[in-house]
Amino acid sequence: GVKKEGFGVKEQGKMNCDRVFNIFCLYGNVEKVKFMKSKPGAAMVEMADGYAVDRAITHLNNNFMFGQKLNVCVSKQQAIMPGQSYGL
């Protein structure tokens, strides 16, 4: 199955779907991006394959963006479904 990852950043005002897409597409094909209503500052990124997820985690996790540390990890969910809430 397709792996999906989630990430968190505190300066959410500086992040939007386009920026998240542009950051993660450096490591593989991005299928979907969804910001979490239940967890401000967190988003989920669905990648096309597990290799892309592994590359994104390797290069982005624990790095800093806009002065905030990124936490990038594999999500418990396998796919992003419209209108559904998720937990990281």
From TrEMBL:
InterPro entries associated with the record: Nucleotide-bd_a/b_plait_sf, RBD_domain_sf, RRM_dom
Keyword Glycoprotein: no
Keywords: RNA-binding
Classification via SUPFAM superfamilies: RNA-binding domain, RBD
Residues in RRM domain copies: 1-77
Name of one Pfam family that matches: RRM_5
GO molecular function: RNA binding
Domain of life of the source: Eukaryota
Presence of the UniProt keyword Secreted in the record: no
Name of the protein: HNRPL protein
Lineage: Eukaryota, Metazoa, Chordata, Craniata, Vertebrata
Gene field: Hnrnpl
